[in-house]
Amino acid sequence: MGKPVFYINGKFVEENEASISIMDHGFLYGDGIFEAFRAYKGRIFQFNEHMNRLYDSAKIIALNIPLSKEEFKKSTVVVYVVPLPGMKKDRSIRIIISSYQRPSACILPGSSKMTQYINLILARMEAKARGVDDALLLDTRGFVSEGPGWNIFLVKDRTVITPSIASSILVGITRNVMIRLFKELNYTVEERDVVVSELFTADEIFGTGTGTEITPVIEVNGRKIGEGKPGPVTNRIDEKFKEFKKDNGTPVYE
Ligand SMILES: Cc1ncc(COP(=O)(O)O)c(C=O)c1O
Fold it and tell me: Strands 188-191, 39-40: parallel, antiparallel or unpaired by DSSP?
């Protein structure tokens, strides 16, 4: 395997030269943006969409990336690759509604993938302490927002509902793919404010994200959702997503 190359302040350097000042804002305060990609069989999924979000994240915090998207794509900057654990056959999760909220966009713009994840980590710790798999956070208005690393979808009859950008969500790449696939399957998709009681009356709920793909949510605050197992619409979109993944990817080595 070749040596990793690091790109720091406009220079390509080796690992032992890859250093930053201890006064650097990223080091001191954790300021920064990042992006996480997923590759299936050597092909990066939704590469352009992830690159666009990276540049949008930079714009939101007024960070100048001194490379064009094309230059960025061609050069190895820092690539940290980890195999993701295989998916469990039954990936269903039980969640609680966290006492932590997603900050409003005028406190921290959630649409930028910024490094301040402590809010989400606290929510996840709360969930683990209460003996469930994960947490769902509301926005500061009390509407449903998102989980730590995943967007949420509700299914009610043939309507698919997901919180809009107004609910302090990260606009997930997987979420956008889901919306597109549901529309192709002729479902009605509503991006809007979601109230907590809609969770309890939903037929099905699932989360979406690069790390977790599609994760059925079978219990919220101790209450069973639908039949308490992955529902037919979740299974249908999972199949459709599998097909989509096969045909959509940018080879890692072009
Ligand atoms: C806070 C948050 N919401 C949602 C998501 C899902 O986004 P994507 O589908 O782009 O992975 C992520 C991804 O890591 C996230 O960090």
Answer: unpaired
